[in-house]
Amino acid sequence: MLFGALEAGGTKMVMAIGNEHGEILEQLAIPTETPEITMSKIIDYFIDKKLDALGIGSFGPVDLDRSSKTYGYITSTPKLAWVNYNIVGKLKEALQIPVGFDTDVNASALGEATWGIMKGLSSGIYITIGTGIGVGVYMNGSLLHGMLHPEAGHVLISRHPEDTFEGICPYHPNCMEGLASGPSIEKRWNKKAFELKDNAKVWELEAYYIAEGLVNFILTLSPHKIVLGGGVMHQQQLFPLIRKEVKRLLNGYIQTPQMNDLDTYIVPASLMDNQGIMGCIQLAKQELISVS
Ligand code: ADP
Ligand code: ZN
Question: pLDDT value at position 137?
Fold first, then answer.
């Protein structure tokens, strides 16, 4: 079987063709411009591929409520050209195949749960720390939506007493994304994040904020594993710092085997940055099964 996968991001669109085993047969990325320009390129890419279904993991917020009139829309995004854009409807109409749909980070969580390091677990979360911070939640064997979908990159955290940086989130002075995303590191320290590799203070503060977020997720969602991906997490030195800080903040309150082995509990993404696109393949597969 052949599945199309579309990882719709604010800066680029990654398209791929894969099979039911999650193997990626071909892949192409194009910049995200206006829907008029970008969608016709996406349709051209997929149209002759004889696909059984398509899966989309999208930037958002998105409408995932199947009973809603705007199901399948990108809704209130800061990318203004894409506000209230019916991405699922457009692709369904053009390709005439079932289309699965979820957030980009839920797709990544699904990729890790199906083919990666969360395989076999009934729950886990995937967190991207990149241009933004997003959290995909896989819970009791399926992706969590709720009222909208988790927007847990914006959880409020307490500021480090010595940090005077105002944060970059236009909505919240002290949310995780505003204080710990890639662009916030770059604005605070006035350098590209990868150029700060040898500055220990940068990564200690970064781990301090990421750990605060993680502790909130451990306490509210109780995931069996936490997978961290995204550009910032290429700084591998963050992992031990984050684990140490999580342990300090939890202060022995949660007692499970996982808490005694944080090295295998808080882990890097395992699919060579293909977790999102592989999750989209699984979204396509699930949609095909659900409609047939
Ligand atoms: P996106 O979130 O847009 O999908 P990424 O996950 O690659 O893309 O995140 C991009 C951000 O991650 C950049 O803004 C930059 O701050 C940061 N980043 C990218 N590469 C690195 C790196 N090697 N080390 C630290 N930070 C990085
Ligand atoms: Zn925020």
Answer: 98
User: Residues with Cβ within 5 Å of ion ligand 2?
Assistant: 154, 169, 171-172, 175, 177-178
Q: Which domains does the chain have, with CATH numbers?
A: 3-104+273-277 (3.30.420.40), 117-268 (3.30.420.40)
Q: CA angle, 150 as apex, 152 and 133 as ends, to 5°?
A: 40
SS3 256: coil
Torsion sign (Cα): 285, 291, 54, 152: negative
Q: What is the mean pLDDT of each run of 10 residues along the chain (292 residues)?
A: 97 97 98 97 98 97 98 94 98 98 98 98 98 98 98 98 97 97 98 98 98 98 98 98 98 98 98 98 98 92
Specify the pTM.
0.98
> Which ligand is located closest to the Cα atom of residue 130?
1
Q: Output the pLDDT for position 183.
A: 98
Q: Which two tokens stand for residue 248?
A: 């300090």
Coil, strand or helix at 210: helix
Kindly report the backbone phi and psi dihedral angles of residue 254, in degrees, each rounded to the nearest multiple of 5, phi listed first: -95, 120
HSE, side-chain direction, 13 A CA sphere, residue 181 = 21
Question: Ligand 1 — pocket residues by CB below 6 A?
Answer: 9, 11, 128, 130-132, 182-183, 186, 193-194, 230-232, 234-235
Ligand 1 centroid – CA 280 distance (Å): 21
Q: What is the distance in A from the centroid of ligand 1 to the CA of 178?
A: 15
